Description:
The protein has 212 residues and is an alpha/beta fold. 53% of the residues lie in helices and 10% in strands. Helix 8 (183-188) links the parallel strand 4 and strand 5. CO-5-methoxybenzimidazolylcobamide binds next to helix 3, helix 4, helix 5, strand 3 and strand 4.
Amino acid sequence: MSDYKALQEAVLKGDIKTALEQTQKAIDAKDVARDVLDNGLIPAMDEMGDRFAKGVAFVPQMLRAAKTMQECVKLLQPLFAEGDITSKGKVLIGTVKGDLHDIGKNLVAMMLEGAGFTIVDIGVDVSPDKFVEKVKETNPDIVGMSALLSTTMPAMPETIEALKTAGLRDNIKIMIGGAPVTEKYATQIEADSYASDAGSAVAKAKELLGIS
Ligand code: B1M
């Protein structure tokens, strides 16, 4: 296993070149992509979040770290494929209204795609009406919602309500996730499933559709 300190430091500094070199080094050392994420990239973003919360890092640093992580994730992307490319079902995924965080959502989408799901990614700041419109247009099996801000979590039940009003709720399964979201919240708002990370999102999606 690689030493991920240098990768973490590079992400924190927003040093894309070094971060890509370190990611490539881990790939060359045959590290598992999940390890690079769990031990290198995600701890760096958590540290950035702590620095932001303490007032020692600001939005431009968060943005730079996010961009650096995204570039590294692109490099890891081919390693996420499970091999079976027959579609296991269609997942429509977006970050809810008012929320611009998309790294977690993109990771979830990427892992689901790697596991054989067809992905319709409708981006960030997606209003309940847009979810409804896109569900009508693309007819997914699962609707995935991501929220990273406690202030945007209420857009999840709003979206579920809009799907109910449009008569679409019974045809789909709903999965939610994001750092402030919990299993308890999922039960409370009557979502069908909650996943704490991208790996478990794949397992939960398979469970929802009754596939192994
Ligand atoms: Co923001 N931000 N941010 N930010 N940001 C957080 C979330 C925060 C916790 C930082 C902090 O204070 N410690 C805090 C939220 C506090 C709260 O409400 N609880 C915060 C804040 C306050 C803000 C702003 C309000 C700051 C400001 O402007 N004053 C602002 C809001 C903008 C907006 O959205 N309207 C803001 C802006 C930004 C940037 C744009 C600068 C940037 C985002 C860039 C981007 O995404 N393209 C950013 C970043 C980078 C962060 C932190 C540092 C990192 C987030 C991240 O990418 N994590 C974050 C601190 C932190 O999370 N520790 C923070 C890595 C990612 C892989 O994890 O997204 O949790 P995560 O996804 C995981 C799981 O949650 C799960 O799987 C993923 C992979 O394992 N998951 C799902 C996610 N979605 C899922 C969906 C599923 C299932 C699982 O099913 C569908």
